[in-house]
Write a structure and sequence with these properties.
Blueprint lengths: L1 H5 L14 E2 L4 E2 L4 E4 L14 H5 L6 E4 L1 H9 L6 H21 L4 E8 L12 H8 L4 E2 L5 E4 L9 H25 L4 E7 L2 H11 L4 E4 L20 E7 L6 E6 L6 H5 L6 E7 L10 H20 L5 E7 L2 H9 L8 E7 L3 E7 L4
The structure holds zinc ion (2 copies).
One zinc ion binds next to helix 3.
Protein name: SMODS-associated and fused to various effectors domain-containing protein
Pfam families: SAVED
Organism: Ruminococcus flavefaciens
C-alpha cells in the first residue's frame, strides 16, 4: 500500500528517486526502506512512550525512502521532526495522485499569442493561469507552450504597421505551429490571445477549421482564462439597412460596444449595411461556448446572404467583438465560399487593417 501511494519513489522532499531500479547497471533491485516517522520503539528517532506503540504499524506513520534519506532523517532527528516528515509524505502522495488522475486526459499545446493593443504593452500572459484553464478536460502538452509574440516599430494605425505584423504572424505561425503540425497532425492546440482583434481573426484564419484548436479569453474578475459559464447567456440578431441601391456591403458586429452606422458610411461607400448585435452588449457578450456557437450560426447566415443574395465578393467588417468571436470568424472562414473580408479597427476612428481571404 505504501508503495502504491508513493509510486515506488523516495518520499523525501526533492528526491523522488525510483527505488526499485539501479540507474547505472540498469538492474531491477529493491532498495526500498520503509521508514517510521515516529519510531517503533520509544528510544528510536522521534519515539514516544505511548505513541510509538500505537503508531508502529500504521500506514500514516510510514514513509517510503531511499537508503540515503532514511539514514538522513534518523541521524538528524532535530532537522526532521514529525510534522515536517508528515508534510513531505502528504505532498509526495498528493502529487502522485494528481499526476495519475491526468494520465488519460488528452494533452493540448498552449499557444500564447501576444501583441500590444493600440501601442499599449500589456502585462505578460501568466503561464500558470493558462495551464489551469485547460484542466480538467485537458492538460498542458509542454511546460511553456508555444509563444508567439509580435511587435512592430511602425505607428499603430498605419498600413505599414498592419502589413508588418501580418507578415510576422504568418512567418511565426509557419515556423512554430506549422512545424508542430508537420511532426504530429493530430496535435491539439489551445489559444490564449492578448492582441488586436484583426490579428486574432488572422490567427484563427491561419489555423483553419481542420485543426483541432480551441480558444480561451481572459476574464479580469475572477482572474482566469477558464470558460466559467456553461449555459447560453446571450442571443444575437441581424439587421439589414439599405443606404441606397448598389452592392457595396458593410458588416457591423456590435457585441462589446454599439457602432453607429453613420461612422461606417463616413469611411466606406456602403450601399447595404448588415448589423449583427448582441441582446446584451458588453465585454461579457460571449460568456460561454454556447454563446460563441450561437454567435457563429448568426454570423454564418449573414456571410451566406452577403455572398449569395447580395452577390458581393467582398465586404468591409467593423467589429466590436470579444477575442473568442474574433478567433472563430477567422478559423471558420471558408475560402472561395465566403466574401473576402476587409477588417477595420477603431483607433481614434476606424482604419483599415488586415484582409481575410481572397488572394492574401
Ligand atoms: Zn528508521
Ligand atoms: Zn531519497
Amino acid at each position: 500500500m505504501l508503495c502504491a501511494n508513493s509510486a515506488g519513489r523516495c518520499e523525501f522532499d526533492g528526491c523522488n528517486k525510483y527505488i526499485f531500479y539501479d540507474n547505472i547497471t540498469a538492474k531491477k533491485l529493491n532498495a526500498s526502506n520503509v521508514a517510521h516517522i515516529v519510531a517503533a520503539s520509544p528510544d528510536g528517532p522521534r519515539g514516544d512512550k505511548t505513541r510509538s506503540y500505537l503508531l508502529s504499524d500504521k500506514l500514516e506513520n510510514l514513509m517510503l525512502l531511499c537508503p540515503q534519506h532514511h539514514k538522513m532523517i534518523d541521524d538528524y532527528v532535530e532537522d526532521y521532526p514529525e510534522e515536517l516528515l508528515l508534510e513531505m509524505k502528504k505532498k509526495h502522495e498528493d502529487s502522485i495522485r494528481e499526476m495519475c488522475d491526468l494520465i488519460f486526459v488528452p494533452k493540448s499545446e498552449r499557444v500564447i499569442f501576444f501583441s500590444p493593443i493600440k501601442n499599449v504593452s500589456l502585462t505578460h500572459i501568466d503561464n500558470q493561469l493558462t495551464a489551469q484553464a485547460l484542466l480538467p478536460q485537458k492538460r498542458p502538452a509542454s511546460t511553456c507552450g508555444i509563444n508567439i509574440s509580435i511587435e512592430s516599430a511602425f505607428d499603430y494605425n498605419t498600413s505599414e504597421y498592419w502589413s508588418d505584423i501580418d507578415n510576422q504572424l504568418k512567418r511565426d505561425f509557419d515556423r512554430k505551429i506549422g512545424n508542430e503540425l508537420d511532426s504530429d497532425p493530430n496535435t491539439i492546440f489551445s489559444v490564449f490571445p492578448l492582441a488586436p482583434i484583426p490579428l486574432i481573426i488572422k490567427l484563427g484564419y491561419l489555423f483553419m477549421d481542420k485543426t483541432n484548436v480551441d480558444i480561451y479569453q481572459k476574464k479580469r474578475v475572477p482572474d482566469t482564462w477558464k470558460w466559467i459559464e456553461t449555459r447560453k447567456t446571450n442571443s444575437f440578431s441581424v439587421n439589414r439597412i439599405v443606404v441606397r441601391a448598389g452592392s457595396n456591403i458593410a458588416l457591423i458586429i456590435s457585441l462589446t460596444a454599439e457602432i453607429n452606422p453613420k461612422r461606417v458610411t463616413d469611411i466606406v461607400d456602403a450601399d447595404i449595411i448588415y448589423i449583427i448585435s448582441a441582446e446584451r452588449i458588453g465585454v461579457d457578450a460571449i460568456s460561454s461556448i454556447d454563446d460563441l456557437s450561437d454567435f457563429w450560426h448568426v454570423y454564418q447566415t449573414v456571410c451566406d446572404e452577403i455572398k449569395n443574395k447580395e452577390c458581393a465578393v467582398e465586404t468591409s467588417v467593423f467589429p466590436a467583438i470579444p477575442v473568442s468571436a474574433a478567433f472563430e470568424i477567422g478559423r471558420r472562414y471558408m475560402p472561395g465560399i465566403y466574401p473576402k473580408l476587409h477588417i477595420y479597427d477603431d483607433y481614434n476612428g476606424f482604419c483599415k487593417t488586415l484582409t481575410i481571404g481572397g488572394d492574401c
